[in-house]
Amino acid sequence: MTGRCAGKLALVTGAAQGLGRAHSTRLAEEGARVLCTDINGAGAEETAAKINAQLGAGTAFAFQHDVTDPTAWEAAVDAARENLGGLNVLVNNAGIGVGGNIETCRFEDWQRCFSVNVDSIFHGCQKALPLMREHAPGSIINISSIAGLIASDTMPAYNASKAAVWMLSKSIALHCAKKNMQIRCNSVHPTFVDTPILDGTARNHNLDKGVLMDKLARQIPLKFVGEPNDIANAVVYLASDESRFMTGAELKLDGGISAM
């Protein structure tokens, strides 16, 4: 195997579409073998099939996976052991958004947002670390959001959950360093990216997709919306040994928004 991630054994959650599919594909293109997991099992299978068609059978595998369920995490880690032979890269990508301001957001939606965005990372790291230690050095990559660093009045649940991902990542990083595990942990903070989520946003606001993209681009200093590989390329860097001296850090991929 060749590539920047040659020999890496990766599990990517939320891999059925969008960023998760891009992360899985780019890691595989750089030499990793990948377990693609998602609650949408058919979508995860499609991602793995596309990767194998491009790069050869046995490069990617799929697993249906509810990231909010600790028992499902145990099964996912077992699937990594069985299909990949181990695990040393964990990409916690699965996440959801919840609408409503502090007066209109329903508590059950708040709880669901934290369950998917934060509890999943707690469960995932807790269940995966024993296997990752056996195959160190390793890297945990938690996909947060620029919304975890910059607040909005319209999405308190999303803001708070993604901020929790940011700080949880630092705690995990320090724990792994203190225990000399040779496992790093960092968070990634994208802004608007052209994924199927934006298709839904356009529909919900009765907007043409192009009109929405222009509107979002005007909010970004670089004046364009990101592509999935703009984020996936950063995941490749964090998964690779190129980033071996980086842990407990946040990587902002926001077109300059946080600089304003």
TrEMBL record:
EC number(s) stated in the UniProt entry for this protein: 1.1.1.47
InterPro entries from the xrefs? NAD(P)-bd_dom_sf, Sc_DH/Rdtase_CS, SDR_fam
Keyword hit for Metal-binding: no
> What keywords is this UniProt entry annotated with?
Oxidoreductase
A GO molecular function held by the record:
glucose 1-dehydrogenase [NAD(P)+] activity
Q: Is-annotated flag, keyword Oxidoreductase?
A: yes
Q: Which family does it belong to?
A: Belongs to the short-chain dehydrogenases/reductases (SDR) family.
Listed PANTHER family:
DEHYDROGENASES, SHORT CHAIN, OXIDOREDUCTASE UCPA
Task: Spell out the protein name for this chain.
Answer: Glucose 1-dehydrogenase
Q: Which organism is it from?
A: Erythrobacter mangrovi
Give the lineage.
Answer: Bacteria, Pseudomonadati, Pseudomonadota, Alphaproteobacteria, Sphingomonadales
